[in-house]
What does this fold into?
Amino acid sequence: MNKSQCFIITGGPCAGKTTTINLIKDLGHNVKYELGTEIIKEGILFPYENRHKFQMEIYKRRKILEESIKDSDEIFFLERGYPDGEAYYLIDNLQPPDFFNDIDLSHYKIIFLLEELPFFENNGVRWENIEFSRKLNQLLFNCYLSHNLKVYKIPFSEPNERVKLIFHFIIKHFPELKFKILD
It folds into this structure.
């Protein structure tokens, strides 16, 4: 059984995930960054060349990451979670591996799906476009729901407002948790 408590920040490319999670980190909270970006920056594996191989590398690293925090009593904010992998298989019209059905996600307390920004910014790692991001957001929503997880859509707004809204949902559902929040 996983003791950690994780809140997932997810969304399509250019949805503001990293900006949001950086603000949460600046408030002193534990964060874990997106693994796909890390892999792409290494320059060896790319999702547009071999989705399955790329997603399997993410799965391997996610398993190590989540194993490393599973016995912690601390709260973590994760940029993406296991079901993101399922959504990426589906967006490429591929069948997700069966192991996605067997992963213990009981430590995922709330999923925050960031709705896409009104613009799409290429950061040197992204190869997608805004249409891809919109389609992926719907798949992410459906994948997380299929695991019976609470998913809250966070609309586009200023980054600080998004963080306030995220903490509002957490405090509402977990009033016993103490958070440093933005004023």
In short: The chain has one domain: 5-173. The chain has six helices and five strands. The mean pLDDT is 90. The helical segments are 17-26, 35-42, 51-69, 82-91, 130-146, 159-173.
